[in-house]
Amino acid sequence: MSQKVISFKLLSGEEVMGRLVGEVDTTITLEKVRSVQMVQQGPQQMGMAIIPYSATVIDGEVPFRKSALSTDPMTPSDETEKLYMQQTTSIALAP
Question: 65-82: per-residue pLDDT in tens?
């Protein structure tokens, strides 16, 4: 199992990220899938929220049909991956 963290946008416009478990012709399977959302933090300030993708499968594996992706898989920025790791592991990363 790979520990590589990837992200992609779905045709719905939602952006998701998770640990790559596997990939076959028609699906990409991730675990610990999170939805990435922009949230307003002040009158002129935006921030990012990383929330569980599914309320019923918080840390398990979720297969995504490649036909539902609007982007190819991407490598998240270091800052985004750091936020993801802090939320999905007990590892405390230095600022």
Answer: 999 999 999 999 998 998
Residue pLDDT, tens place only, 10-39? 999 999 999 999 999 999 999 999 999 988
**Partners of 7 in beta bridges:** 17, 74
> The tokens of 66 are what?
């490649």
> What does the alpha-carbon distance between residue 14 and residue 35 come to, in Å, rounded to a whole number?
7
Is residue 84 within a helix (H) or strand (E), and if so which, with residue range?
A: helix 78-88
Residue 17 and residue 10 in contact, taking contact as beta carbons nearer than 8 Å: no
Q: Where are the beta strands (DSSP E) in the chain?
A: 5-9, 15-23, 27-42, 45-52, 61-65
